[in-house]
TrEMBL record:
It is found in: Cell inner membrane. Residues 182-398 form the Histidine kinase domain. Its EC number is 2.7.13.3. The modification 4-aspartylphosphate is found at residues 61, 467. Its main location: membrane. It comes from Rugamonas rivuli. Pfam families: HATPase_c, HisKA, Response_reg. It is a multi-pass membrane protein. Residues 8-129, 418-534 form the Response regulatory domain. The keyword Acyltransferase does not apply. Transmembrane segments: none annotated. This is histidine kinase.
Length: 540
């Protein structure tokens, strides 16, 4: 701990003998009373000492040449730091009442007359030294109290933050638990429908119409499962920053119009008044991801708007932004929920949501996709029953004409291309072989990587559909070996994988594949990709 400084006493006298006598007298008691003695020969020197030190008391001669004691006292007390230093005037003359009044007006606390009586001097300075020591002790205690107060304040703030963080974590855990329960519900529903439909197909006596309906149910519910998985993966990728946008100039109004036409064609908006007012606005964006934003905003409006309600979809330009607005007349959003509607695991009415289905992560994905495009999305509502409005803003660009599409290359010498399917899952391999066969393709299959390479060398197919997660050697190694062999280097390679991150696409392309498809693969998409890899010649 730093050593506490002793109180200081300043003696001011222009007479050297008087100054020596006083300082010597005071020094006799300095060790006993624990103080220091300093001296000054003039008022100016006294002021310099006051600027450098704090004093418990000043013994000040009244009659000094130049700046006398009264002027010195007045100058000392004009300075804020030294204004409270007690001053004892020392004079050889008996001061009358006017002199005493003048001294007290200049800040004096007492008078001493020469010759000074040592006992009186000792009594007086002892009082002021004790007061100075007491004041210093009080200041020290005040500093310690202030430090302790600061520490307690910091500890209280830390405790408050910890309580808030714990409460936030508990809320998030509760929300995650609810989300997992909803996820289980959403997965079991389509799986139950698929299982029932598959069992119905195998029952004796089932009608042809029943088989057809069961097949449609399986197809529809499989697509629903695929959408659930896609939403989860997309949200995970967006939160971890692993979505890479395939940007191109596009008209947001045209994209929204195409989405709305899909809703009308599929009947999903049949029970609603769906109105649109779309003005052209060009942005630099990923068409697939912007379609996701649009669909999620419209799905949200449909989910929370009762049948017969109105949904208005508008696009327009505003300064440097292209704006998309989706307004509904639905259940609205409570004021306490409104700031959190884009947070992960946060939803509105669970009763309505469960009746409509869905995981409640669409708006979180919307916000993250908007951020990736350099835009923003906001929500507004008048409260329960007041409907909701979601507004997307994206940076506007000048209209850019799209490049003219290149004509397709001429087709092969024969009809449909031959296909090699390398897939280790027995059911998946059998189903895809049957589907491709139904479209007229000649399909050979292999159950692992080594068998697939051997089949490719032996059969020389036009196209090879290769699963990435194969036993023996994986799909990457299959592609590398086929590309390294001149006999198989010309085979078109299409990767089939459950991994859809940008890094996965990079690895697929670096291994030598021509295309990358993420499971589950839609048959129409597969036909399109195969046709693009090996165009079928048009018969003349």
């Amino acid at each position: 701990m730093p050593k506490t400084e002793k109180p200081k006493i300043l003696v001011v006298n222009d007479d050297a003998n008087s100054l020596f006598a006083l300082t010597s007298l005071l020094t006799q008691w300095a060790e006993q009373e624990s103080y220091e003695v300093l001296a000054a020969r003039s008022g100016q020197e006294a002021l310099r000492q006051v600027l450098m030190h704090d004093f418990a008391v000043i013994l000040l001669d009244v009659n000094m040449p130049g700046m006398d004691g009264f002027e010195t006292a007045e100058a000392i007390h004009q300075r804020a730091r030294s204004a409270d230093i007690p001053i004892i005037f020392i004079t050889a003359f008996l001061a009358d009442e006017l002199d005493r009044l003048k001294a007290y007006q200049r800040g004096a606390v007492d008078f001493l007359f020469t010759p000074v009586i040592p006992q009186i001097l000792y009594a007086k300075i002892s009082v002021f030294v004790a007061l100075a020591m007491k004041n210093e002790e009080l200041k020290k205690q005040a500093r310690q109290l202030s430090l302790r107060t600061t520490e307690l304040t910091a500890a209280n703030q830390k405790l408050t933050r910890e309580i808030e963080e714990r409460q936030s974590a508990e809320r998030q855990n509760h929300a995650k638990d609810e989300f997992l329960a909803m996820l289980g519900h959403e997965l079991r529903n389509p799986l139950s429908a698929i299982s029932s439909a598959a069992s119905l197909i195998g029952l004796p006596g089932v009608s042809a119409d029943g088989v057809t309906r069961a097949k449609k149910i399986i197809q529809r519910q499989s697509q629903h499962l695929g959408r659930i998985v896609d939403d989860l993966l997309d949200l995970s990728r967006a939160m971890s920053g692993k979505i890479l946008l395939n940007r191109a100039p596009l008209d947001l109004a045209a994209l929204v119009a195409a989405s709305l036409e899909t809703y009308r064609a599929t009947g999903r908006s049949a029970d609603y008044q769906l109105e649109q007012d779309l003005d052209q606005g060009w942005v630099d964006g990923d068409a697939t991801r912007l379609e996701q934003i649009t669909s999620n905003l419209i799905d949200n409006a449909l989910k929370y708007t009762p049948s017969g309600g109105r949904i208005e979809v508008r696009t327009w330009t505003e300064n440097d932004d292209v704006v998309l607005s989706v307004r509904d007349t639905g259940v609205g959003i409570a004021a306490d929920l409104l700031p959190h509607v884009f947070d992960v695991f946060v939803q509105g009415s669970s009763t309505l949501d469960r009746s409509q289905g869905g995981l409640g992560i669409g708006l979180s994905l919307v916000r993250r996709l908007a951020d990736l495009h350099g835009g923003e999305v906001t929500a507004a509502s008048k409260g329960p029953g007041g409907g909701s409005t979601f507004t997307l803003r994206l940076p506007r660009i000048e209209h850019q004409a799209a490049p003219a599409p290149q004509p397709a290359e001429a087709g092969g010498e024969h009809g449909l291309p031959s296909v090699l399917l390398i897939e280790d899952n027995d059911d998946g391999r059998e189903m895809m072989t049957m589907m491709l066969g139904c479209y007229g393709y000649e399909v050979q299959s292999a159950a692992d990587g080594n068998e697939g390479v051997a089949a490719a060398v032996r059969r020389r197919p036009d196209v090879a559909l290769v699963d990435i997660g194969l036993p023996g050697i994986d799909g990457y190694e299959v592609a590398r070996r086929l590309r390294a062999d001149p006999a198989t280097a010309g085979i078109r390679l299409i990767a089939l994988t459950g991994y859809g991150l940008a890094d996965d696409l990079r690895r697929v392309m670096e291994a030598g594949f021509d295309r990358h498809l993420v499971k589950p693969v839609d048959i129409d998409q597969l036909m399109e990709v195969i046709g693009a890899c090996v165009p079928v010649p048009v018969k003349q």
